[in-house]
Amino acid sequence: MFRSLQLFVPTRSNGLRGNAATDAQRPVAGTERRDGIPTGRVGTSGVRWVAVFLLPLPGLSLAAPAPAEIAAIDPPRSYGYVIGDVIELQWRVTPPPGMKLRAEGLPKPGAVNRWLVLRELQLAEEGDPSPRSYRLKAVYQTFRAPLAVLNLTLPGLPLSLDGPAGPQAAATPDWAFKMAPLRELSVFDADGTAPVRPDGLPPRPDNSKARLALGLSLLAAATAAGWWAYREAWLPYRGRGRHFRQAEAELRHLPAGPDALRTAYACFHRAVNRSFGEPLFAADLERLIGERPDYAPLKEELEAFFAGSYGSFFGAGESPFSLDRLAALCRACRRIEQERT
Predict the structure, then answer these.
(1) pLDDT value of residue 316
(2) 65: which residues sit within 8 A by CB, 6+ positions away?
(3) Is-contact 166 160, C-beta < 8 A?
(4) What residues have CB less than 8 Å from 213, skipping those under 6 apart?
(5) pLDDT digits over 180-203, tens only?
(6) Model confidence over 56-86: pLDDT tens digits?
(7) CA–CA gap between residue 93 and residue 107 (Å, rounded)
(8) Which stretches of the chain are DSSP H helices?
(9) Burial class of residue 187 (count of CB atoms within 10 Å of its CB; 0-12, 13-18, 19+)
(10) Can you name the CATH fold of 69-179?
(11) What is residue 197's predicted lDDT score, i.e. its pLDDT?
(12) Phi and psi at residue 169, in whole multiples of 5°?
């Protein structure tokens, strides 16, 4: 290929000054001579020098490997960043066939410059072995505090590829973004005073479920308290007869035994004494019925109770006034107390 190149020797016919004979006899470096006359063709030594100068020319050297394909994945917004914000960038790197990305060649996390820090760098292989691609994730944090909106650039990450043709260098593209100041250049108004802004109201939380639960809890508590007050005769219209109600409860839970009847008599005596505000005996029944005529229907039962109680405590110990009869008398006294005006 190189032997087809010819070097022209300047002669007088080219419009140059000089002795034609002398020029014809002067040898040209690197040219062939035939019968002592230069032929104008390049010799072996000339070919070497011409090849040295022509090899760097495009199209005459060996073909270089294709560059790696680098594409951004879901790039974040490029505006509205302030000091301390974290920026996350991702790329998909697809090396040429037969090459792979060296993880050892990636930069280490740390300070990039005086206001930018590379906090995290992750490399993950994805896709089939052919074509092989990599997902590169970089997390930056900026500490620039501009006084006005500022255009900044995150420098690209240097990459190193390995393959049969040798190592190949690549880099992710630079990423431009805008940073804003946290405050204005001057914090004072035109009159020199600092502006006072009202505190922002926090959003009102949705507490409808909590209010509903609280209402139901209060309703359940009020119902339970009302039922207990009714049961214990604590209500105003139920306050009368509460002592007889307590006696009824004690009679229902009275344990069985030889002294059960005496314990029942004592319970009813306490209810009668508390209801009338003084100890009541058999001799006081006439006065009681005179003051409380509504007890007149129970006169015979009350006399029988006092007689049975006296016999049980101070007599032979036997009494014809049974527990069932005493419970019925207790209920009757409670109804009279509750219904009286």
Answers:
(1) 63
(2) 96, 99, 163, 165, 168
(3) no
(4) none
(5) 998 776 666 666 666 666 777 888
(6) 444 444 455 678 899 999 999 999 999 999 9
(7) 16
(8) 20-25, 44-54, 208-231, 242-252, 260-276, 285-291, 299-314, 323-339
(9) exposed
(10) Immunoglobulin-like (2.60.40)
(11) 67
(12) -95, 145
Euclidean distance between CA atoms 240 and 336, whole angstroms: 9
Q: What is the spatial distance between Cα 340 and Cα 241, in angstroms, rounded to a whole number?
A: 10
Closest CA to 107 of 65, 154, 73, 67: 154
Whole-angstrom Cα distance, residue 212 to residue 196? 40
Number of neighbours of residue 309 by Cβ within 10 angstroms: 23
Inter-residue contact 178 to 152 (CB < 8 Å): yes
Measured CA to CA, the distance from residue 174 to residue 168 in angstroms comes to: 19
For residue 237, give both structure tokens: 């219209």
Map residue 286 onto helix, strand or coil: helix
- Give the side-chain half-sphere CA count within 13 A for 3: 3
Both structure tokens of 83: 């000091």
β-pair type (133-142, 86-94): antiparallel
**Residue 233 DSSP class:** T
